[in-house]
Write a structure and sequence with these properties.
Helices cover 39% and strands 15% of the residues. It is of the alpha/beta class and 375 residues long. The protein folds into two domains: 255 residues, 3-Layer(aba) Sandwich (Rossmann fold), CATH 3.40.50; 81 residues. The strands form two sheets. A seven-stranded mixed beta sheet has the order 3-2-1-4-5-7-6, sandwiched between helices. Strand 2, helix 3 and strand 3 form a beta-alpha-beta unit. It is globular. It starts with 11 loop residues before the first helix and ends in a 5-residue tail after the last strand.
Length: 375
């Protein structure tokens, strides 16, 4: 652990990580603090920050605990008329009791008077705090967001993610220093927890590979993981998101594509694309990105093999890292070039450009077909 982490100003990599946390927390709150019958039987809303720290840095930049509190207050101010009456609890833990005392003071000084969200504090090692709070997370009526901003790689293991994946309505955001594991993967203390033999841990894509490793460890269970890679100096680390709900995955990917409009996956050029990060080029409209090109090829193969409806297409695009706004662009290009066609359930041609890739669409609207001769 970096003992000086909270005694200095957050660097750009940490600021970006916290920006991802903030934007996803905002999206998550907008779903679970809305009084909607679509959510099912939700009796409580919980946010867990297992590595909370003192709440900020020396320049008064807020850390994750104060971001959580601020976003809940913001939602109450803006949407109080449609806000649910479900109790909201913020659980903050840090193994350093002194940091928790500082955090208590900061949370108290920023707390609103409505009393709808209540903080609870612990000072324990992650393993102990996790075991103590897991019964709350696994309660059938709870909706949970679990944040695990660990400093090393010893705490949030595939086994921890597996247990959280069994809990309904539980989304997770955790930090992983992927290039650190790449460097020390053969060290006995890490090799006993992470079996990376035969894995391609290329420097620039190592965080993606680590996410794939966690995904592999989940087996066939339908739990969705997605990474966002962050380069800081010579290190590659980043955030891994998890949810059993496609809507949660859509919202996370939307956040990522706002931060990286070219590939939605990193704050650096992972694939060596010549146009990455360019606002304008001499070849406008001809920019090519490896991830998008591969997605289009996979998409065409999927359409040929499965002839999916819009619901199947929605899931496929999200699981390949593309939210509807980005997937629609690729589908529109493929439709206009004559590679694919869309038809209504009765076989009639569908309205051009209406793909219905939306979580709210519970019924099949159209089917996708590959056109003869398309490649």
């Amino acid at each position: 652990m970096n003992k000086k982490f909270h005694t200095q100003e957050f660097d750009d990599g940490t600021a970006l990580k916290l920006d991802i946390f903030k934007n996803y927390i905002r999206e998550w709150i907008s779903v679970f603090l809305t009084d909607s019958p679509k959510l099912g039987h939700v009796t409580s809303v919980n946010i867990f920050d297992f590595f909370a720290g003192p709440g900020g840095d020396t320049a008064s930049n807020p850390g994750s605990p104060l971001i959580i509190q601020k976003e809940i207050k913001h939602y109450c101010d803006e949407h109080g008329s449609i806000k649910s009456n479900k109790p909201i609890t913020m659980y903050f833990n840090d193994k350093d009791a002194e940091k928790i005392e500082i955090l208590k003071s900061r949370i108290a000084s920023n707390q609103c008077g409505l009393g709808c969200c209540q903080p609870k504090f612990m000072s324990a090692l992650f393993a102990d705090a996790f075991e103590a709070l897991f019964p709350v997370i696994e309660q059938p009526g709870s909706a949970n967001l679990v944040i695990m901003d660990q400093f090393g790689i010893s705490d949030v293991t595939p086994e921890v993610v597996q247990r959280l994946a069994t809990c309904a309505r539980t989304d997770i955001l955790f930090f992983f220093p992927s290039s650190f594991l790449k460097r020390f993967q053969e060290h006995p203390s890490f090799a006993s927890k992470y079996d990376l033999r035969g894995k391609n841990l290329d420097y620039k894509t190592v965080h993606r590979a680590i996410c794939d490793y966690f995904r592999e460890k989940l087996g066939v269970r339908r739990y969705h993981l997605a990474p966002f890679s962050i380069q800081k100096n010579t290190s590659i680390h980043g955030v891994i998101f998890g949810s059993s709900n496609l809507l949660g995955l859509e919202k996370f990917l939307t956040v990522c594509w706002k931060l990286d409009p070219e590939t939605g996956e990193a704050n650096f050029n992972m694939e060596g694309d010549p146009f990455w990060g360019e606002k304008h080029t001499l070849f406008e409209g001809l920019e090519s990105f490896k991830k998008i090109d591969q997605f289009k090829a996979d998409l065409l193969q999927f359409i040929q093999d499965k002839k999916p409806d819009n619901l199947g297409m929605y899931a496929f695009c999200l699981e390949n890292g593309f939210p509807p706004s980005k997937a629609n662009q690729s589908l529109r290009e493929m439709l206009e070039s004559g590679q694919i066609a869309t038809v209504l359930p009765d076989g009639q041609k569908a309205r051009k450009g209406a793909f219905y890739l939306n979580h709210s669409e519970s019924m099949s609207k159209i089917r996708f077909h590959k056109c003869e001769g398309a490649s």
